[in-house]
Amino acid sequence: MKLISSLFILFALFTQLYGQEFTKMSDSKACKAALEKQHKETESIKADFSETATSALLTSAQKATGKMWYKKSDKIRWEKTSPESHIILINGKTVKMKDKGKEVTNASAKMVAKKIQQLMVQMMTGEFLNEKDFKIVYFENKSNYKLVLTPKNDKMKRYVAEISLIFDKKELIIKQLTMEQDESSKLDYKFSNTELNTSIADTKFTTF
Prior knowledge:
- The protein is α+β, with helices and mostly antiparallel strands.
- The protein has helices at residues 2-19, 29-41, 107-125, 154-157, and strands at 23-24, 44-54, 62-71, 75-82, 86-91, 94-99, 102-103, 134-140, 144-151, 162-168, 174-180, 186-196.
- InterPro entries: LolA/LolB/LppX, OM_lipoprot_carrier_LolA-like.
């Protein structure tokens, strides 16, 4: 009886895991149109996030948590709150950074922040869907869409080799964003408690 119960549990787990696998979409037009419509109707986003960073240079994965705010069309506040404070403010072409309570003025750090700014704005506005800067392959499972983006620009390839975005099929809200620099370096973000089209003051993107 115990053997039968164990086999049943294993079968149930296998079925659940198999159902979560993504398959390539033969026709992505409907998915793309739905995501474009959602991005056009989204004026703001507020969400919690968890971050996991892995690299060959790290002895173990580094984890962090925080909050993000986005306001159409080029305002983003990305704020890590644990284990240490780190804030990136994006307000149009202006990018500001604060690390462990001190504003970052280093020129090279700001240059990297500019690259992040360009990338994050594309992800939030849905601009990436025009495939000007990325080749996109569409996948799906029962509950989600997965878009795998490969940069076309050689300069961008220096910073990121591939980006994966997972959207909830029903609400078309981003659930996960993964950026891979190479096979051993990866940043993974999971979003929760997402709120759309709430009022956010402009000072959220200009003041630490």
